[in-house]
Structures are given as structure tokens and as C-alpha cells.
Design goal:
about 300 residues, alpha/beta, UDP-N-acetylmuramoyl-L-alanine:D-glutamate ligase, nine-stranded mixed beta sheet, 10 helices, 13 strands, about 35% helix, binds alpha-D-ribofuranose
Length: about 300
């Protein structure tokens, strides 16, 4: 069982289903409303735990019911929550999500709250746990200086780092040098490379450009088109995904990344790790919500 440290966000998702995603200035009538455990960091931590990994989640919540309930959920998934810090003066993070009925596509706005208060001192408090991990997995819903410091600390101890570049933002070459495996989606790959990864050739070009900046591998998730990966050890290829009817695509990328971290921590090859992660992400889009949609490993076979 690999040891994984996930450093990232914890949100409570306020989800409304609607016949379409409204355009700016438009009011539309939606249907179901649900409050669901989410946050890219938390979703990835839960996915890694349901994949069979030993997970420590490093995050910050407010001293409120959203934070308390979120921690209860992680504990139920046997995640070590000793380093989910509390900020008494800031509310827990929330996300407003609209899910389009019929396609399962979504639109998300995050109010980061306590996620924005996670700081370098918090990460220093987890140094020992990071030093003993097989994989550190991070995303971008926490302050960038914390992302950079965490990556630096992990690299100092020779721990494999995976950066999921969501939500999309430009990143410096200095930060990317601390990353072993980078996992952008198409939009993030576009922002990071300036290339438009629509055709297979452009996807390959974007991956090659990013591979020059990171240490080991680039894995671009392409939604229903599957995944393209390329590694410095010479492996590469498109890994297709099974076509399913998507009910809600929220957290599909998180499920992919959590499963990927668990598989890499277990020493699996890129191809095996990506195939497993693809399967898990595919199952998740057939279910509603973020954390409730994440399968356990047994459901993949
Ligand atoms: O990736 C999906 C997640 O993004 C949601 O759970 C929401 O909280 C935002 O962080």
C-alpha cells in the first residue's frame, strides 16, 4: 500500500442541475439542488484512498459545519486528517456548481475561504510525513507559494511529485522544474504551452513542450477522448476511455489524479496506472456529485 500525501482544497459543493449553463446576464430555472462534499484536493485524496492508498490530506477548513462534516467524510474513507488545519476566522471553502442535464457538463465557481489561508508554516508541520511519502499530489486551489514550497520539500526528500494543474493558470519554469508528473487537461495544456491541443498532432506537440519543463512525464487528460502521455523514459501513446452516458462530469479529473497517485505510489507503469485511472474516472461520470461519485477499487473489475 503506497503512502500518498495530498495537499489541496476542501470545498462544499452547492450543486444545481439545469437544462443548460446560463450565459452572462441570463437567469434560468434549474431543477435539483444538492449539497455535496467536494474540492479538488479533497476529491483527489478520497479517490487515492478508495484506490487503496494510505492517504494523508493536508488542507485548511473554517471552524464551521462545512469543515466539520468534510473531515468526518475523510475519516470514513480512512484518510489521516491530522493535518487538516482549522482557521477560526475564515469560512470553509465552497463551490457553486451548475450541472447541465443531458450532457453532465458543468460550470464551477469556487469561493476559496480557508483554502486561501493554507500557508508555508502549515506545510513545514507536515515535513516528516512528506519525507516518508511515496507520492505527493497537489493541485492549484491553494496559494501558489504553498504549492511551490510543498513541491520543493517533496523533491528535497526525493519524493515523487504529481501536479494537477487545475484550475488553469500560467506557471513559472522554476515551479515546473519541481514537478515529476504533470497532469493538465486540454484547457490547462493550452494555457501552459500556448498550443491548442485539438488534433492528435497538437496534443503530442503540447505534451513534448511540457516534457522539456518537468522531470518525468506529461499526462494530458482529453475528456471522452481519453488520455495522451509521454515520459522521459520513452513511453508514450493515447490511452482511450470507454464511452458512457455522462450524468455529471464533476470531479472526473480528480478521480483520475487520485487513482493515478495511488497507482504510481504502488510502482505501477504509466500505462497500467493511466488505464486504471481512466476506468475510475469513467465510472465517476455516470454518477452524481464529486465525492459520492468516486468508485472503490473493487468496482473497477
Ligand atoms: O473538480 C471538481 C471540484 O472543483 C469540485 O468538487 C469543486 O469543489 C471544485 O473544487
Amino acid at each position: 500500500m503506497g503512502k500518498i500525501v495530498v495537499i489541496g482544497s476542501c470545498n462544499t459543493d452547492m450543486v444545481v442541475t439545469a437544462p443548460k449553463i446560463p450565459v452572462p446576464g441570463e437567469t434560468i430555472l434549474g431543477n435539483e439542488f444538492s449539497i455535496i462534499a467536494g474540492g479538488k484536493g479533497a476529491n483527489q485524496a478520497v479517490a487515492a484512498a478508495r484506490a487503496g492508498g494510505m492517504v494523508t490530506f493536508v488542507a485548511k477548513v473554517g471552524d464551521d459545519n462545512f469543515g466539520i462534516d468534510a473531515i468526518k467524510g475523510y475519516k470514513a474513507d480512512k484518510i489521516d486528517t491530522s493535518y487538516v488545519f482549522k482557521d477560526p476566522d475564515t469560512p470553509s471553502g465552497i463551490a457553486i456548481i451548475i450541472v447541465e442535464e443531458g450532457t453532465g457538463q458543468n460550470s464551477i465557481v469556487v469561493a476559496g475561504g480557508a483554502n486561501k489561508k493554507l500557508n508555508i508554516d502549515d506545510i513545514k508541520a507536515v515535513e516528516k510525513i512528506i519525507s516518508e511519502a511515496d507520492v505527493v499530489l497537489i493541485q492549484l486551489e491553494i496559494p501558489l507559494d504553498v504549492v511551490e514550497f510543498s513541491l520543493k520539500l517533496a523533491k528535497q526528500y526525493g519524493v515523487k511529485t504529481i501536479l494537477n494543474t487545475a484550475p488553469a493558470q500560467p506557471l513559472s519554469d522554476e515551479l515546473l522544474r519541481l514537478v515529476d508528473i504533470i497532469t493538465p487537461n486540454e484547457t490547462e495544456a493550452r494555457i501552459l504551452t500556448g498550443l491548442d491541443p485539438v488534433s492528435d498532432e497538437e496534443v503530442k506537440r503540447a505534451a513534448a513542450k511540457l516534457l522539456e519543463k518537468v522531470n518525468e512525464a506529461v499526462i494530458i487528460t482529453l475528456g471522452s477522448r481519453g488520455v495522451y502521455f509521454v515520459s522521459k523514459s520513452g513511453e508514450n501513446g493515447f490511452v482511450p476511455t470507454t464511452n458512457v452516458v455522462a450524468v455529471d462530469t464533476t470531479a472526473a479529473g480528480d478521480v483520475f489524479n487520485g487513482y493515478l497517485a495511488a497507482a504510481m505510489a504502488d510502482g505501477k507503469s504509466y500505462l497500467d496506472a493511466i488505464s486504471i485511472s481512466n476506468k475510475a474516472a469513467t465510472i465517476s461520470v455516470t454518477r452524481k456529485g464529486a465525492q459520492p461519485s468516486i468508485p472503490i477499487m473493487n468496482e473497477l473489475s
